[in-house]
Sequence to fold (191 residues):
Amino acid sequence: FWEQVVGEEDVVLGRTLDENTRLPQGQTHPGGLLNLTSDSDGKLRHYRWYTPGPDTRPLPSLALAAYLSLREQSWEPDTMIEARGDLRVTDYDSNGVAQQRSLPQEILLDERANWQEPGPRNFVHVSPEQLRQWESEGGLPHLEGRVVLIGYVAPGSGDLGNTSLNKSVPKVNVHAVALNGLLQDAWYQAT
Fold:
């Protein structure tokens, strides 16, 4: 696996606050934080675009790291984080013109945002069986230009959490909802 990942510019690895990644010694790769913090009632509603790391240097969330990779940008917290904590990123309008966006440090997730409709900006769920079928049919062109988030979930185990709408949801889905919100400006902000 590591041989396939190292050197690929369009791969972003998940990491936790207490570990970098499990890459071979001396290897680095773009990564985003997997850490999620539940509200006091145990629900995952809030999502932080970045979090202070172990050395206090801010680290991007998995959704933000994937977004930056899509936009061919690197994580530069010294220039991207504004004085009041908001985040400044470059985005592109429908004509390909670069524009600056300011994002709050933390958002309220919108799980109901449109993300399973067909279209180049929307997400689809793909099962391992579908991937195997596509591969047997001659490749994976369905994944060209798409973001792929992979999570470990199996009956009785896995990385599951509670959200406002689901009692048991793969946490990788929370990152997908956040990334979708970032791509489509579909989130709520506490005032």
Summary: The mean pLDDT is 79. The two ends are 44 Å apart (CA to CA). The first strand starts at residue 13 and ends at 15.
